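so i finally got all the pieces together for this one. its two components total, 361 residues if u count the protein bits. some of the lines might not be protein, just check the labels. i wanna see the whole assembly predicted at once instead of chain by chain like last time, that was a mess tbh
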Amino acid sequence: MVGMSVLRAGAGFAARLNPLKHGFSNGRLLTRTVPKTESAAVRYGSHGKQMFVFKPSDYYDRRFLHLLRYYILLTGIPVAAIITYINVFIGEAELAEIPENYVPEHWEYYKHPITRWIARNLYDPPEKNYEKMMALIEIESEKAEMRRTQMDVRKLMREKGDGPWYHYETMDKSLIDYSPKSTPDN
Amino acid sequence: MPDGFDKDVYPVPPRRTPAVEKQTGLPNPAEILIKLFQYTVDVPVTTFRDWVERQHERNRFFYYQQKFRRVPDLTECKLGDHLCNYEAEMQWRRDHKVDQEIVKVIKERLGACQQREGNSYLQNCDKEMNQFRQVSKAYQSRYGDLGAYGSAQKCLMKQKHRMIAERKEATAAED
């Protein structure tokens, strides 16, 4: 069995070496093909380079990256364009001394035009926050004051008994029945 | 730094370009590279910047530094006067921020001096070094270990303890 394959290999080898035995024309050396006797002839149209490449699917990865870029740039590009426009054509504010008899508005203390716009349209002036806080503190301190005085008044009136509070209605004395205690032998 | 800086605080060192004595007839490659850089990068960027500045010139607007009125301190507030306390606290916070910025400016001056002097900064930067030491020591003694929840009251208490310690030292020194 093994000898048969060796003989076959030897026959193939000899056939390859000696083209005259298979009746090849000697003139067309370049165009003749020499088939291997054991395996089928494989003729690559791409001269050996792997054209149908086997690799795992990158559909999901590419779809993800595409969608990522899409959704980022959907708002990213308009925002970048607007900010570039503002920085180039409107520009930042310049620092200056406060003119005489002029009270600047609360947004005129910021440099960048977008910050100024936000401070002007979206935020409350810091003075308003200050005053609101002061109002809350005032209300709470008045409440605390009231509660403290009420506590003191209650304590004193209860103690001394000479104020308008802590008057409890007592029964009419004529209704009291003294008969159980009227004689010492009861 | 851009143009508007104080020349006394950040002095410009004297130029030390040597007189050129060319001994070859060949062109200087450094000059060629400088010219190349100038024409490919410097000139377009400068023209663009000038154009942008011209657009800015058309509608100028200004911003100002907010000046706050001084209000009574924490030491001048009566005990239950919460409004006075609040105003004093806000003023203390503004002053704290200002002091932080002062320390940053002094630190930047020291850094600029070191950059300017190069390797001889240890002997030439004495003035800035002393100023920085003084300012940071003062900041540490006033605002030093107050912590994240530092307030005007805590700062005042710290000052009180400092004064007590000084008085104790003075009496101990007398004895």
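The interface with chain B takes residues 88-98, 104, 108-111, 116, 130, 133-134, 137-138, 140-141, 145 of chain A (CB under 8 Å).
The helical segments of chain A are 2-17, 59-90, 113-121, 126-160, 179-182.
anyway lmk what u think
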